[in-house]
Amino acid sequence: AEEAVRNDELVYQHDSRRHEAQWELSLLTQLDRAIDNGEVWVAYQPKLDVKTNRIAGAEALVRWTHPERGPISPDKFIRIAEEFHRIERITRFVVNEAVRSAVDLAQMGYDFSMSVNISAQLLRNPGLPGMISEILAAHGLPPEKLVLEITETDRLDRSSRTFQMLQRLVQSGLRLSIDDFGTGNATIDYLRYLPASEIKIDKVFVQAMEANKEDYLLVQSIIEMAHSLDRIVVAEGVETGTALEILKGMGCDTIQGYYVSRPVPFMDLIDNIERKHVRMNG
Ligand code: C2E
Ligand code: MG
Ligand code: MG
Ligand code: MG
């Protein structure tokens, strides 16, 4: 009987894995159409400057609202897109939307920088700098206003193509941010060698620091280390006023998290900025 149960389990595991594979395949085949017909869109999460208490930037985060299945997490479909060569298409869409929004905000008089996420995989694509510069030129946004958030799980070899790519992007005037700092192996290498202007402390540390002394000390040391190397520090995943106060006390420059705002449609971002804004002329 025990063996029968075991067999059932195996069959079940096999079935659910096959289900999973079918589901991924169906997502993939729907993705192209989803971009064309507006199911894929961009949400913006504001970044609050702690010292001035103003919103000086936002991060563009891709969203897919499926007509039957509802919202599909980017963690899920970005991975599928990377696996099946759709990441370039998605990134072109997101960067184009984000740059257009940044130009809209500049025209409204806001001094604003826009961040976009770039997959590690795309950093190995030699077409990336050209794609970004074309979009910037088409809308007329200076490269300094665009921040590329990068994550990498491999060590950063300074002779690698990825490293050369990152240098090229910086030379073209774009700014780099090291996303999810503290979770990959490459993060110290990146901090040491890359001309990144910003680091983002991963939300796992930010969320644990209120209850856990080790995490508290870790966040504190990351901020000190980043500042001594002249990097701006962003804390992600700030959900409480207490976390904000702690980070302020530690000298953190910028925060992002549900405490300030969830990622929202562009119209809601504008409302948010109008309440806490930076105007260029007075
Ligand atoms: P990320 O770039 O590290 O983005 C931060 C994630 O944390 C976002 O999840 C955001 O909604 C969430 N978040 C923000 N504040 C809080 C908070 O206070 N509490 C909690 N629990 N979560 C918070 P999201 O939007 O689901 O995105 C997940 C990941 O998907 C992103 O992580 C990024 O790696 C990837 N991603 C999203 N959009 C894009 C894109 O356009 N291109 C690429 N390549 N990756 C993207
Ligand atoms: Mg990010
Ligand atoms: Mg992050
Ligand atoms: Mg992440």
Automatic annotation (TrEMBL):
It comes from the Bacteria. Residues 24-277 form the EAL domain. This is Diguanylate phosphodiesterase. It comes from Novosphingobium mathurense. The chain holds residues 485 to 766 of 766 of the full protein.
